[in-house]
Every structure is written in structure tokens, then in C-alpha cells.
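Table S2 (continued). Query chain:
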Amino acid sequence: MRVVDLKIEDIAFGGKGVGREQGKAIFVPYTIEDELVSAEIVREKKQFAEAELVEVRKSSPHRVTPGCPYFGQCGGCAYQHIGYEHQLAIKWRQVRDVLQRIGKLKHIPLRPIIPSPKPYGYRNRITVHAQDGVIGFFRRDSHRLIDVERCPISRDDVNRELIDLRGRNPRDGHYTLRTSSSRRVFSQTNDEVADALRDLIVNLVSPNQDLLIDAYCGAGFFAKALLDNFERVVGIDWDRFAIAAANESATEKETYIGGDVEEELARREQSPFIESDLQRLGNPHSLTLIIDPPAIGLSKNVRHAILDLAPTTLIYVSCNPATLARDLKELHQKFTLNSVTPLDMFPQTAEIEAVAHLQP
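Corresponding output:
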């Protein structure tokens, strides 16, 4: 394979630096914009190429020493070579760019990114794999494992669980290690940023409203924080264990439905809880809808159902800015985008969380 000299022009969503050779984009991991690097081409396509970093010939002032001895081998982190403040700037810019490119949005009311108070030691759970005496994570771009004694982005009690697991010589398999306070249903892995996310949404919602529909509600993390704002709250999630957890502390004003969000919203006449609550609304503009879908975003049917429901407040929590941009492009037909707020739920990685606030 040949080696090329490149100037890194930008950082692509996913974390790889982008340089160009005769107009063709070449993606190089572990680089920073404005750096001059030598890179070895490892895969070449007609429109782009992928390369591995050989040498940083002129380094960025934002380059730092990674905090993990496995960085560059482990597939989990992409940004440990970048100072934290600059990681935040990159992620903010990526959200803006993807909303412009995919969402075709021009005047984006993009707020400052909410940082993580802990750039390291924030994860309240990890999943490790054991095979043939090796316990750890998958290597980058591989199904081979790298043996990991400690994960620096995880909390101390999670790392103690890892030490304990390694001492038991476990059978081959997958093991989820958690803090003692981490629930067995889905929850965010960064407690401090999850709290900031919840507080952000509480501040976006007006008081004294009739109905909240919290789609993809999990155990009711948002719904229960907003109980005082609504006469009725309906949560929907496919995870019946999460619904059971939500019901453990449910009040009379709360209803949690274990089912498919698409079916419950798109064919809501089959959902007596939602339909009866919609009929009870004296003012159809007193409906708030929170949606927190998986990374694939909203299905076409869910997007259409949202347009039909026409809630007076729509809050979209996204873990994938690309699918958020795709969905906002269609929702923009009937809604005005009031704000987009990125959050750094996963420092040192290329993942980005964002919250969009829309109204008709």
C-alpha cells in the first residue's frame, strides 16, 4: 500500500480526520484538523479512501496524550488524542454541519454544547467479552478481543467489577458490569449528563398542561420529572421490564404502555389510553410529545403520526445527529425549530446526543 502526505481539513462524523488527494477524500483516524500527516492507504474506493496514520508531521495545539494505554487498539474511543474543550467544539460543529447537509436547515438555533463534568471516569456500566481467557473489548475494526485490565472512561466501581470478573476466570460470553445504583433497564451511561438532559427538558416544557406523551419512555426518566406540569402522562416503550419499573412508582395520573411506539402512535385508535386522553383535551394545543428513539431515528409512520398529532410542544432527544437531521427535514413541514442543544454524553468517543425543541 502507498503512503500519502495530507493536510487534515476536518473531522468527519464518526471521528476520522479528512484529508484530500487530488480531490478524493481520505479518512485518517486519530488526527486533528490542520495537522500535516503521513498516512498509509489501506482501502481505496472510487469516491474515497481509508488510511492508517503513519506519522504526524505537524501536530495540532489541541493534541494531548491519551489517558488510556489501549487507545488506538480498542474500538471504543476515538478522541482521546484531542483536548476536551476541542472535542466539544468538534461535536458542536458536526451537529451544525449535519443539520445543514442532511436536514437542509439554514438558520439553525444551535445552543452551546453541554459538557460532561467528568471527561473520564463517567460510565456507570460497560459490557465486556470473555473468550479463551481474554477479557475486554473488541479491537478497532475487528472481532478480536483486546485484554483490558481497567477502562479509564468508566467509574471506579465499574472497574472494581471488572477486576472481580477477571479474578473469577469466567466462561466465554458477554458480561455487563454496572455500578451498584445502575438499573437493569435502559438508562443513560453518564449520570451527570443524564441529569443535565432531564433538567434541560424540564425547562423546555411549560407548566399547567393537559397531556404528555413520552414515547420511548424507558422507566419514565423524563415523564416522572414532569409530573407536576401535566394533568395526565402517558408513556410508551417496547421494553416491558422498563414499563414494569415505571409502574412501580406510578401515580394515578400516569399510564405506561408496553408496546410498539409506531403502532401506538400511528394507529392510536387501537390505543385506548392515548385516544381517550386526546378526546378529553379541551384544547388540542395542550399536548406535549417527547420522543427519544434509538439511533435509527423515527420510522416514516411515526413521523407521519407526529405530523397528524400536531402537538403544541415536540421535544426530540437524539443519539444520532444524522437521523435527527433526516427526521427534522420532514417535521419542519409543520413545526418551527426553536432550539437544538448538543450534549456530550460520551466524552472521548465520537458519539453525540442532541435535543431539538419544536413547536407548530
